[in-house]
Amino acid sequence: MEKVMIALDYDPTAQKVAEIGFALAAAMKAEVILVHVITDIKYYSSLAYSPIVGYTGMMALNQVKKDSIGSLIHASNHFLDTMKDHLGDKAIKTIVLEGDFAESIINTAKKQNADIIVMGSHSKKMLENILLGSVTEKVLHESDIPLFIVPTKKQ
């Protein structure tokens, strides 16, 4: 395996997903690609959306202009750069995408010739989440590229 693509969302567990994906890539001496997908701008203005990982105490999502796709792209790039710095590898490639979560992840993995996609599953009951139609489930069923799922249930 030469390329590991790690798909990250803004959930606080994204750091765990990035660290495990990075360790997997390091064990295989593979290139790392960090990816974040921006979907419908209305999604980010919902009260249910969680703060951006890595911004705790310095920049929460509620400080980002949610009515501007440009500001969301900027915040997403900053998020991925923060994660890249945390992992300590300047060679990590970062990509911010716009569109459907699962489709964007699958299409980018194909374009980047990723050998494996690393994603988290936030469900307390992972099987229940997979059966009910999560982004991870859609990628699992629609991608020809192997998927490494990191369980991220909250303790």
What does this structure look like?
By secondary structure, the protein is an alpha/beta fold. The protein has a single domain, classed as 3-Layer(aba) Sandwich (Rossmann fold). It has six helices and five strands, in the order βαβααβαβααβ. The chain has helices at residues 14-28, 41-44, 69-87, 101-111, 126-132, 135-142; strands at 3-7, 31-38, 93-98, 116-121, 147-151. A five-stranded parallel β-sheet has the order 3-2-1-4-5, with helices on both faces. Helix 4 packs across helix 6 (135-142). The model is unreliable at 47-62 (pLDDT under 50).
- Largest β sheet strand count, sense and barrel closure: 5 strands, parallel
**Gross CATH architecture:** 3-Layer(aba) Sandwich
Distance between the termini: 32 Å
The portion of residues forming beta strands comes to 15-25%
Low-pLDDT stretches are 47-62
CATH class: Alpha Beta
Q: Number of DSSP helices?
A: 6
Radius of gyration: 15 Å
Give the averaged pLDDT, no decimals: 81
Task: Give a quick rundown of the structure.
It is found in: Cytoplasm. This is Universal stress protein. By secondary structure, the chain is α/β, with parallel strands linked by helices.
Give me the secondary-structure topology.
Blueprint: E1 3-7, H1 14-28, E2 31-38, H2 41-44, H3 69-87, E3 93-98, H4 101-111, E4 116-121, H5 126-132, H6 135-142, E5 147-151
Parallel strand pairs: 1-2, 1-4, 2-3, 4-5
Structural features:
155 residues; alpha/beta; Rossmann fold; 6 helices; globular; Universal_stress_UspA; Universal stress protein; Rossmann-like_a/b/a_fold; cytoplasm
